[in-house]
From TrEMBL:
Keywords: Glycosidase, Hydrolase. Residues 197-300 form the Glycoside hydrolase family 2 immunoglobulin-like beta-sandwich domain. It comes from the Bacteria. Its EC number is 3.2.1.25. Belongs to the glycosyl hydrolase 2 family. Signal peptide: none annotated. Residues 13-184 form the Beta-mannosidase-like galactose-binding domain. This is beta-mannosidase. InterPro entries: Beta-gal/glucu_dom_sf, Beta-mannosidase-like_N2, Beta-mannosidase_GH2, Galactose-bd-like_sf, GH, Ig-like_fold, Ig-like_GH2. Residues 483-509 are annotated as: Disordered.
């Protein structure tokens, strides 16, 4: 217990439209309001708006972002003997004036930070009236854009002029919601003497033990109470009856406390070891315990190896002196109404990521600084995290009032996140450095600022002061050696980036989007970068999610609802162009849906197999993207209904601990074995060239040893690797526990037979076990089980079966499932169904 007391102020809130184009039935009402919450949820709960995610309803609710909304409540208070009463808002979305008992407390304009007000002089004994009056975000952003000057961006509305989640204004996968509300908790804190204003904890290994260090900032009232700060650590290997502790008196408002531990277990990423965590209790003591805080830490070292080599310089994540091949995905807000994302939902998503054999989540810069639940779960599960500062794809003004707001949000979020063992990288922005170089910004900026001060000066300074143990790069894509010269030139009046181009493949990170935009996905094999931070391919959501969110009759690839739920520029054109080199475009909707889902999975899977085959030159691939924020055709592996798409299986297969692939090498073909385990992988590698009927045409067997956390390239004899009939032959490479395939012809040009599969099913613990047997060659067999049961998920997919082979697949589901329906060719899918004579 502490003498500081805290109470939430979440009850009794109402909301009303104060001004703007609200419909009459809304303007006339005062609504019950949820806090934390947002106005969309309140309007939905009151039945005053249709579901924005359904059909074409997005346009019907766009007026919400043009309306000023006022939230109010009354709370009781009586004097409690404390000298300070602080009203704390953990998050306001976004531009607001706050009044208590009719007096203005302050004005806010930043979704990404918290606010604290000393309200003691304004509180009255009895009922107190609290009002938060929000300005409409769309007109505010437009006004700020005029005041600050227009900046280049890819979308119409000036999201760069307001400190609000950029994708809230819409993105090429996202609905525009324009949310408003008190989106994080509100509390009244009562205290006397002193309180903990800032607590920064670092945990670092030292020999067999470790050290915990606390940097603490306190706030005092007028009493200037003598206080001290103490640390106590509990966790694996420590004496539970007498936990290690240390203390130091506070002189002024800052103190540093260090505690050495004789024993401390190391925290490891998923797939590399366990994730032991330690609880650090921080106490502020005077005559009694005045305030307290708690952090949960892990002991590990982190660095990014950028050693120069013949190709440029490495970009390799190293944890506890172990190089890590990054198997990553990009993360966007999991709901376009983020207040609906609770801890349980985050855990479902991150456990899906683990099931897909991932080890890193990149939190993209157009979304949010993710929640404590997100980071705590990532720490627990061993999922590494990379957090962008919230700047995406646009030039950002460096002038006031944004300049000070951005420093405040950076300081707060660096302090909040830096103690998490999962956090391995902070990044200045998404694609702004590339945009400045390649998207015509230099001319369009015409000497205006664009964010370079933040990326090259402010963020490194803030991190160096508050969290020097956390690695940082100015942006992604980014190349080692890049810098900034603010001096104007004739070609670039806004200043010049120095050093290599941000997309230099020899160092740093690259984003590869030409394939999706205008090239075939096989051209991923033209690139051997050091690290790929973004690439991806579109596909529609699961059939259940798609049909449940659309009202189109008939439903076609370009029916009205489908177009509303396709946000990418010329998205359907690119889907078609990307499919045609591999399959013909099907005539019926359900087969079109399967073809596009399969092509998405094949595109990303082929890219991942290629990038991984170049380790340790290439040491990471982060797929765009893991999740969706609503039901939409997108690059996601898990759709807006939380259902995995076939792409999920591509991630799971390509990121398996041990993989075998066949890759082009120097004009020939080679087997590449990847071993991401701590044990040597030894055994025969058999390579066979087969006919589609299963006839062995040629083959070799070699003994191979793949080192732990290593790879091996085995050239294939040209006599084996050369087809005598491209349309009807394939290569099969097998090592103990893994198989890789190479088809000489694209499916549309091949002699794949009609699908001929036999399915058997039986109920088992956890779901239904399915056995699929192929009477003839079957490519990429996948069960679209959501069509049979909306909660069902097949653990494996994209399985290629040679004639006579069988595969067992566990289908997990709630309740009962009609096992006979699993054999329906609408459910039991393969690439064979997409090949026509």
């Amino acid at each position: 217990m502490t003498s500081l007391s805290s109470r939430t102020i979440h009850d009794g809130w109402t909301a009303r439209a104060a001004s703007g184009p609200a419909p009459a039935e809304v303007s006339a009402q005062t609504l019950p309001a949820a806090v934390p919450g947002c106005i969309h949820v309140d309007l939905l709960d009151a039945g005053l708006i249709p579901d924005p995610y359904q059909g074409a309803n997005e346009a019907l609710v766009a007026w919400i972002g043009l309306v000023d909304w006022t939230f109010e409540t009354t709370f009781a208070w009586s004097p409690d003997g404390h000298t300070r009463q602080d009203l704390v808002f953990e998050g306001l979305d976004t531009v607001a004036a706050i009044r208590l008992n009719g007096r203005l407390l302050g004005e806010t304009a930043n979704q990404h930070r918290s606010y604290r007000f000393d309200v003691g002089p304004l509180l009255v004994d009895g009922d107190n009236h609290l009002e938060v009056a929000f300005r409409a975000p769309v007109p505010y952003a437009n006004l700020q854009s005029v005041a600050l000057g227009a900046r280049p961006r890819p979308y119409p509305l000036p999201y760069e002029a307001i400190r609000k989640s950029a994708c809230n204004f819409g993105w090429d996968w996202g609905i525009a919601t324009f949310t408003t509300g008190i989106w994080k908790p509100v509390r009244l804190e009562s205290w006397s003497g002193a309180r903990l204003a800032e607590v920064r904890i670092t945990a670092a290994p030292e020999g067999d033990g470790g050290a915990v260090e606390a940097d603490v900032v306190i706030e005092r009232d007028a009493a200037d109470l003598p206080v001290s700060v103490s640390l106590q650590v509990t966790g694996p290997g420590l004496d539970a009856d007498a936990p290690p502790a240390a203390a130091a008196p506070v002189d002024g408002d800052r103190v540093h406390v260090r505690l050495a531990l004789a024993a401390a277990e190391r925290w490891w990423p998923a797939g590399y070891g366990e994730q032991p965590r330690y609880v650090v209790d921080v106490r502020l003591d005077g005559d009694e315990t005045v305030d307290a805080a708690q952090r949960v830490v892990g002991f590990r070292t982190v660095e990014w190896d950028t050693t120069a080599d013949a190709a440029g310089s490495a970009f390799t994540l190293v944890v506890n002196d172990q190089p890590i091949f990054v198997k990553g995905v990009n993360w966007i807000p999991d709901d376009a109404l983020p207040v609906r994302v609770d801890r349980a939902r985050v855990e479902r998503r991150l456990r899906q990521a683990l099931d897909a054999n991932l080890n890193l989540i990149r939190v993209w810069g157009g979304g949010l600084y993710e929640s404590e639940d997100f980071y705590d779960l990532a720490d627990e599960l061993g999922l590494l995290t990379w957090q962008d500062f919230l700047f995406a794809c646009a030039g950002y003004p460096e002038e006031e009032p944004l300049r000070s707001e951005i420093e405040a949000e950076a300081r707060e979020n660096v302090v909040r996140l830096a103690s998490h063992p999962s956090l391995v990288l902070l990044t200045g922005n998404n694609e702004a450095l590339e945009g400045f170089e390649d998207w015509g910004w230099k001319q369009r900026l015409d000497g205006r600022s664009w964010g370079a001060h933040y990326y090259y000066e402010l963020f490194p300074r803030v991190i160096g002061e508050l969290a020097p143990h956390v690695p940082y790069i100015p942006g992604s894509p980014f190349s080692s050696g890049m810098g900034w010269d603010p001096a104007p030139t004739a070609d670039s009046p806004s200043g010049t980036q120095t050093g290599p181009h941000p997309l230099d493949p020899g160092s740093g990170t690259v984003h590869l989007w030409r394939q999706w935009n205008d090239r075939d996905w096989t051209t991923y094999r033209e690139h051997t970068p050091r690290f790929v931070a973004e690439f991806g391919w579109q596909g529609p959501p699961s059939w259940t999610t798609l049909t449940g969110s659309l009202d189109d009759a008939p439903l076609t690839p370009e029916s009205p609802g489908m177009i509303v739920h396709q946000k990418a520029m010329e998205g359907n054109v690119k889907l078609t162009n990307g499919l045609l080199p591999h399959f013909r475009v099907p005539d019926d909707m359900e087969t079109w849906h399967w073809a596009m889902q399969l092509n998405q999975a094949l595109a990303v899977g082929a890219a991942l197999d290629h990038f991984r085959s170049w380790a340790p030159h290439t040491m990471g691939a982060i797929v765009w993207q893991l999740n969706d924020c609503w039901p939409v055709t997108s690059w996601a592996a898990i759709d807006g209904g939380e259902r995995p798409k076939p792409l999920f299986h591509a991630l799971r297969n390509s990121f398996a601990a041990r993989v075998v692939t066949i890759q082009p090498r120097d004009g020939a073909l080679a087997v590449v074995l990847g071993n991401d385990t701590d044990e040597e992988w030894t055994g025969p590698v058999q390579v066979r060239r087969l006919s589609f009927a299963g006839e062995a045409l040629a083959g070799i067997t070699v003994q191979a040893t793949v080192p732990a956390r290593g790879s091996l390239v085995v050239p294939i004899d040209r006599g084996v690797a050369t087809s005598t009939g491209d349309e009807s032959q394939l290569l099969v490479a097998e090592a103990p526990g893994a198989r890789g395939l190479w088809f000489f012809a694209e499916p549309r040009d091949s002699a794949l037979p009609a699908q001929d599969l036999v399915l058997e099913a039986r109920r088992v613990d956890g779901g239904t076990e399915v056995t699929v047997t192929a009477r003839s060659l079957a490519r990429d067999v996948t069960l679209l089980v959501d069509k049979v049961h909306p909660s069902a998920h097949a653990e494996d997919g994209l399985i290629t079966l040679l004639p006579g082979e069988s595969a067992r697949i566990l289908v997990r589901h709630d309740g009962e499932l009609d096992a006979r329906a699993l054999a329906d060719p609408r459910v039991l899918r393969s690439a064979n169904q997409l090949v026509r004579a």
